[in-house]
């Protein structure tokens, strides 16, 4: 692939950034659509992030993705936030436009599109349990509410954060203790893990799924490894599972479309490409 002096530029800012799969993902779409464009990793230390964000549009960048630890700083440094950015206080996608840096959070789009891919378009009158109360949890709770979930129980290691999240979203969301988890799972049609438990290098998420109804669905947004201990356990119980790769791919679409003017597709071929990349890095 070659690029010209007119190439459209975007990238992903993080610290560290070498582990990110986003350059490979966006690179796949750039090649697929034969674009004169580049999407590059941008290793930016926290103290340099504000300077970098103001310089990147001057260097010709159309926008960037933002990952750890810059998502909250990106929220503070951008304007015209979408509803998901406001709900999470975090920005993962920046669009530079007419001298402004627009702040978006595409995790809600990513989560909803991932559920739609699995045939889930409504949770009306349903109960869901969400583990974790960080930025990803906030985006997911907002998504679940938009699908009509009647009750969302948020369970977190630090209870204060679960209570703050429940207060933010109102009466359909409540904080529950780990000790109450089994009882909450018994009423739920879905469990979503938004914590880092189960991720490579982290302890597994060790919870008992036996109380969950037979038709329920287990979603794990961890994608390294793709099949987490939680999903292994859920499959052994015969429950339906959704792994974290779909959300990773889907949350990337809006940025690509905004910067490069093409709506990229999530296809089985793309998924296979990314699964192979994950396998190679194990
Ligand atoms: P993200 O943006 O991915 O949501 P985050 O805001 O750092 O990241 O949130 C991480 C979540 O994983 C939090 O809910 C965190 O629990 P605390 O609020 O108690 O910190 C949870 N988490 C991380 N490591 C954990 C562990 N070892 N045990 C239980 N929960 C953990």
Fraction of residues in H or I helices? 25-40%
First-last Cα distance = 27 Å
Categorize the overall geometry: globular
Heterogens? 2'-monophosphoadenosine-5'-diphosphate
Radius of gyration (Å): 19 Å
The helix/strand series, from N terminus to C terminus, equals: EHEHEHHEEHEHEHEHEEHEHHH
Sheet with the most strands, sense and barrel status: 6 strands, parallel
- Spans of at least 5 consecutive residues with low confidence: none
**Helix tally?**
12
Strand content: 15-25%
**Which strand order does the major sheet show?**
8-7-6-9-10-11
**Structural class computed from helices and strand pairing:** alpha/beta
Note down, in words, how this protein is organized.
44% of the residues are buried. The chain is 38% helix and 20% strand. With 282 residues, the protein is α/β, with parallel strands linked by helices. The chain has twelve helices and eleven strands. The strands form two sheets. Strands 8-7-6-9-10-11 form a six-stranded parallel sheet, with helices on both faces. A five-stranded mixed sheet has the order 2-1-3-4-5, sandwiched between helices. α5 (107-117) crosses α6 (135-146) and α5 crosses α10. Bound molecules: 2'-monophosphoadenosine-5'-diphosphate. Residues 132-137, 156-158, 161, 194-197, 203 line the site of 2'-monophosphoadenosine-5'-diphosphate (ATR).
């Amino acid at each position: 692939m070659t690029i010209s002096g007119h190439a459209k530029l975007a990238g992903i800012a993080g610290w560290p950034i070498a582990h990110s799969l986003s350059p490979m993902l966006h690179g796949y779409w750039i090649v697929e659509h034969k674009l004169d464009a580049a999407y590059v990793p941008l290793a930016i230390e926290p103290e340099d992030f504000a300077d970098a964000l103001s310089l990147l549009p001057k260097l010709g960048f159309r926008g960037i993705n933002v990952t750890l630890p810059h998502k909250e700083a990106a929220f503070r440094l951008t304007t015209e936030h979408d509803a998901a950015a406001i709900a999470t206080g975090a920005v993962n996608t920046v669009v530079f436009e007419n001298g402004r840096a627009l702040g978006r959070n595409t995790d809600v789009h990513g989560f909803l599109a991932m559920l739609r891919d699995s045939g889930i378009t409504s949770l009306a009158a349903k109960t869901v349990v969400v583990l974790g109360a960080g930025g990803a949890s906030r985006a997911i709770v907002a998504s679940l509410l938009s699908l009509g979930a009647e009750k969302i129980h948020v369970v977190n290691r630090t209870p204060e954060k679960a209570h703050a999240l429940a207060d933010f979203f109102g009466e359909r969301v409540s904080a529950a203790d780990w000790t109450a988890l089994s009882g909450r799972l018994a009423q739920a049609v879905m469990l979503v893990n938004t914590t880092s438990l189960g991720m490579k290098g982290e302890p597994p998420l060790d919870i008992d799924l036996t109380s969950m109804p037979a038709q329920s669905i287990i979603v794990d947004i961890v994608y390294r490894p793709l099949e987490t201990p939680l999903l292994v356990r859920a499959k052994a119980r015969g429950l339906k599972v959704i792994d974290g790769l779909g959300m990773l791919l889907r949350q990337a679409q809006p940025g690509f479309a905004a910067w490069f003017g093409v709506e990229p597709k999530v296809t089985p071929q793309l998924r296979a490409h990314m699964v192979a990349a994950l396998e190679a890095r194990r």
